[in-house]
Specification:
Blueprint lengths: L1 H25 L2 H34 L11
Helix pairs in contact: 1-2
Length: 73
């Protein structure tokens, strides 16, 4: 649930930034809204998949290593 809340809040921040940047580049609110609303949707999906991949990789790296010992030993 925490990951979903984190992803949703990032999505809102990302949309605001994307709209502002698109407007600064185009000086056109319609184009800015189109770009600013579509691009973050795909970025949010990519972010969620990226987080899941990293979450799944974390335990795999620790396998075979005794707890409390650095990886370089």
């Amino acid at each position: 649930m925490r990951l979903a809340a984190k992803t949703a809040s990032w999505s809102v921040v990302h949309m605001i930034v994307a709209i502002a940047v698109a407007y600064a580049l185009t000086q056109n609110w319609r184009a800015a809204l189109a770009v600013g609303l579509i691009e973050p949707i795909f970025q949010t999906i990519a972010f969620a998949l990226h987080e899941r991949a990293w979450t799944r990789l974390a335990p795999a790296r620790a396998v075979g290593r005794p707890q409390g010992r650095p990886a370089s030993v």
